Amino acid sequence: MATVSLRRVFFSAVVVLTLALAALFASMVLLMNVQPGFMGMSHFSEEHHRTHDVTFSLLNATVVAGMLAQLRRPARNVAGQTMALIPFAALLLAAALTNGWVLSPPWLILGVTTVLATMFHPAGDPLRWFRGARVDPVMAALVAAAATPLLAFAWTNVLLQRAGPSDHALAGHYGYMAAFSFSVLAVSLVASVRPEGWRLPAWVAGALPVALGLASLVYPTSDSSLEPFWAIAAISWGVAFVAVAELGRRGGMRHALEAGGV
Amino acid sequence: MPAWVYAFGIAVILIALVFVGLHLAGGGIPQH
Lengths: 262, 32
What we know:
By secondary structure, chain A is mostly helical. Chain A has nine helices and no strands. Chain B starts with a helix and ends in a 7-residue tail after the last helix. The interface between A and B is medium-sized, with 27 and 20 residues.
C-alpha cells in the first residue's frame, strides 16, 4: 500500500514539474518580448519566424493539455497522457529524419518529464490503455483524408530542414513544422480510437490545424504560413473533426441510454 | 508496471538528456 502511495505521489510530482517547466519556458518567451534580447533570443518578436514560433508553442501546448488532464483522475485520462507524449515522439522523429538543429532543450526536457510520468502512471501498462477502445469510423475517415496532405507537408519541411543551413533551418524550425504534422496525425488517430479520456485529444486534434490556419491567415508573409486555400482547409478540417467527435459522443450516449431501457 | 516500460523509458530519458548536454556544451541555446 505504501509503495502504491509513493508511486502516486511521485507521479503527481512529475506532472506538476512538467507543467511548472512549461510555465517557466512560456514566461521566458514572455520576457523576450518585454525585454528584447533576453537570453539572446527573440521568439515572437520577428514576423518572419511568427508561424514557426506559433507552431512550436502549439506542440508544447499539446503536452500541457495532456498533462493538465493528469491532475484529476489520471486513470480515466490515459488518452491525455498518450497525447502528451506525441509531440516529443514527433520531434524525435523529425530530428532523426533531418539533423541535430531540431534538438532544443525545452522540448527535450518536457519530453523527459512526460516519459517519466508515463513510467509511473496510475493506469499501469500503457499497452493495456487501448484495451476496450472503440474506433469511431467517421473520425478515422477524417484522419485518413488528412493523412496525405499532412505527410506531404511534413516531407516538404523535412527536405527544407535537410537543405539548411538557413536562418530557419539552423533554429530547427522546419523540423518543428514536420513534427507538427506528425502530431496532428497521431493525436487525431488517438482520439478516433477513443481510449479513456479521448475527448481531450479530439478537441486538441481539431484545435491544432485551426490555430495554424488562423496564424497563416493573420501572418501570410511569415515563412511556412499556409496558402489561404490550405489555411481554410485546415480550419475546416479541425472544426469538422471536433463536430464529428462531439456528435458521435452524443449518439453513443443516446444508444447507451436506449440500450439501458431509459 | 511491466519492466519493459521502465527500461524503455530510462533509455529514452538518457538519450534526451545526452542531447540536452551536447546542445548546452555546444554553446548554450543558439536560437533566434
